[in-house]
Design a protein that fits this description.
Elements: H1 5-14, E1 24-27, H2 35-43, H3 54-59, H4 63-66, E2 71-75, E3 81-90, H5 103-116, E4 122-130, H6 139-153, E5 158-163, H7 176-179, H8 192-199, E6 203-216, H9 218-225, E7 233-235, E8 244-247, E9 252-265
Parallel strand pairs: 4-5
Antiparallel strand pairs: 1-2, 2-3, 3-4, 5-9, 6-9, 7-8, 8-9
Helix pairs in contact: 1-6
Length: about 270
């Protein structure tokens, strides 16, 4: 039987986490009617170029159909989407070496193993988005905990997340391996999204400087960013966590989104 939002809500409560008053947590397995709203909501916060990831273009439309009970939505009393958590199961042997080479390879592994009939043992986080108007309501942490509960209820042993740090776009010249080690005076990670995962039991595992690949023509990059790229070279663009490589002769811009692997052991 697919895991339900009610079962997830019960599991969250048993762990001391509660939903905002009047809100409900649902999966797309039980509420396929909210799928379109979930898709619109999930794409609303990203820079335009991030919606052109090569692997995402190939597989994203299959998430709701192939893994519906791993697609979660938090709805307010009027049915509006407040947060979404997207994930897909895969196999992982527990070693750093066996982690996929970034977000793209993680998604590819999930669908490849599904097609080959391989039973998963791990849940791979794909995306969490929360309503910017509800910043401060701790919805991000709630959805991480919902993913953890979803993994446990499916009998999976770990939640792995190739995390895109929240503030790295303000420091795009900092290598991800260095940025991930930045800390505050209290010793906790500098980046708030990394810090949240650590507070919820996650551990930093391995940087992925080339986690997601976005390519496009020079015209596409100029449309995505509102910038001009008059010569070949590297450019810092709004919303990017690393420079974009523009090759005018080849008429191509290439961007590799840097992430950091964070592991949640659920055993």
């Amino acid at each position: 039987m697919p895991v339900t939002g009610a079962a997830l809500t019960t599991a969250l409560a048993e762990g001391g986490a509660t939903l905002p008053a009047g809100c409900v947590l649902v999966t797309l397995a039980e509420r396929s009617d909210v799928s379109e709203r979930v898709e619109r909501f999930g794409s609303s916060v990203w820079p335009d170029f991030m919606l052109s990831d090569v692997v995402s273009d190939r597989y994203w439309h299959r998430l709701a159909a192939d893994f519906p009970s791993y697609q979660l939505a938090l709805l307010d009393p009027d049915g509006a989407v407040l947060a979404v958590a997207r994930s897909a199961p895969l196999t992982w042997d527990g070693t750093s070496a066996d982690l996929p080479r970034g977000w793209d390879r993680q998604v590819e592994r999930s669908f490849d193993e599904l097609e080959r009939g391989i039973a998963p043992n791990t849940l791979g986080a794909i995306m969490i988005v929360t309503d910017p108007a509800r910043r401060g309501d701790r919805l991000g942490g709630l959805m991480v905990q919902a993913m953890q509960a979803d993994a446990r209820l499916h009998g999976l042993h770990a939640l792995i997340a190739c995390v895109r740090p929240t503030l790295l776009e303000h420091y795009p010249l900092a290598p991800i391996a260095e940025y991930a080690r930045w800390t505050r005076d209290d010793g906790l990670p500098f980046d708030p999204w990394i810090r949240l995962h650590v507070r919820l039991g996650g551990r930093l595992e391995r940087p992925e400087p080339r986690s997601m690949l976005v390519t496009g023509s020079v015209d596409e990059w100029e449309a995505w960013t509102g910038m001009a790229f008059p010569v070949t070279g590297q450019y810092v663009v709004p919303g990017a966590c690393a420079p974009v490589d523009i090759d005018r002769d080849a008429d191509v811009g290439t961007y590799n989104d840097p992430n950091i692997w964070i592991i949640h052991d659920l055993t």
